[in-house]
User: Fold this.
Amino acid sequence: MTFKPAAWPRKLRSQTWFGGTSKDNIYHRGWMKNQGFPPDLFDGRPVIGILNTWSELTPCNAHLRDLAERVKHGIYEAGGFPVEVPVFSASESAFRPTAMMFRNLAAMAVEEAMRGQPMDGCVLMVGCDKTTPSLLMAAASTDIPSIVVTGGPMLNGYYKNERVGSGTHLWKFSEAVKAGTMTKEEFVDAEASMSRSPGSCNTMGTASTMASMAEALGMALSGNAAIPAVDSRRRVMAQLTGRRIVQMVKDDLKPSDIMKKEAFENAIRTNAAIGGSTNAVIHLLAIAGRVGIDLTLEDWDRCGRDVPTIVNLMPSGKYLMEEFFYAGGLPVVIKRLGEAGLLHKDALTVSGETAWEQVKDVVNHNDDVILPADKALAQSGGVVVVKGNLAPKGAVLKPSAATAALLTHRGRAVVFEDIDDYKAKINDEDLDIDETCIMVLKNCGPKGYPGMAEVGNMGLPPKILRRGITDMVRISDARMSGTAYGTVVLHTSPEAAAGGPLAVVQNGDFIELDVPNRRLHLDISDAELTARLAKWVPIHPLYESGYGWLHQRHVEGADTGADLDFLKGARGNAVGKDSH
Assistant:
């Protein structure tokens, strides 16, 4: 796509604060100078906000302060003025009730930090699952030149000579304890092997997926996604990103110039090829809504359906992000898509080059990590969207992480009204369930949990696990971790707490899942379904104040990205009135 750089030099928005000799200009400059900044830094050069989601309670991002220093080096080298700004950091591992509840709050907070302060461009320093989409949503809303640099994945874990994937093995070992094949002591011993270096999950979980989505969208430099957090090349990437944002400001290269519909289609196909997280669906829908792109669940199914999953990483495969990087990383995958005619090659990126120009000469160094198409983990990868009377607005499933034999299945529903009901019943030896049943979890969507927690991959009952059975069909309005696996139907819309059909499923109902035909059907008559819905009464608790109140009353459904309904629409970086 063609892009015409803006004229340079020109007056930047930061000069509204710093340029001139008025009382207001002197006020803004004078207070900044108490940090020891020389006067010439305010001479009209690009002021770059380094928006840093560093936090010791966001362990995936706890090393970002070091990377921020490298970003500063690059900005200074390119003639810019860097200012580091700590922003809201939604930790996946620590936030309750769930980090997803605060993705939109983080996006709001970062948007106003960008809009209300003297920044001509921004470096989005992210890593943990929700930090990447929240900052991209903010950048899309303000449309200030922005670029992503992620913290990178942690190193491989090993336990008893077995490669250990963060998250993936947490679920695996937990189920093994319930099945009686692993002791509690071994489980605790294995903990030390799960997170042995700084960085985000080393599987193709949501953090690695969203790093890949940022790169596939063109919002990060090529090769950014897979570099391990402790690799020196991660620091190099941070410094190069700092250099690049200065030129982006001079060119006035904005998120709206990059995140076109074609870029989102490239990202969807990339997600299919890497076996990416189902969480990418909800995040890309939200980002697209902020930038004004009409992206739908149908686009996910259309674009991903014929893309093979060629990245052999957990939870779908056997390797981890460290091997993915050594093999060549995401540029190799994007090149494969281009060679297969599945890439909009002329999509613009933050580098100023097209998607194809960046990857056409890269080399795959390991055919067992990035597989040939004829040896793909799944020939039809991506995220499947199923619909029917149980999910009129759609639900999603990840075929590459599912059991093939269960993708067409009819079973008796075993219903859990909410997560507490599930926890109270799942270990009961008298629970009326067998492996042919379908587990149904309600009231765990955007309004219901609230925040749509990662509980959709419900653990199986111990009495089932002890028989060596490790997968069953599970259906909910929840999400699941990108590190998780199984035949799990997620994001069922409308959610139960909004009065969707999921709310009235009863124990003993039969449900049909038909992935090849994209169908999810509750086997009751239309009249019976209508009668049940007419009697439905919500049971989920409501917040009475604070952000929880705002969230529950304004959050949209998963099928459109679960953003707040008043945050879509007009973009712009208008400067507010100066009160001084």
Remarks:
- The two ends are 43 Å apart (CA to CA).
- The first helix runs from residue 15 to 18.
- The CA atoms of residues 57 and 94 lie 7 Å apart.
- The chain is about 35% helix and 15% strand.
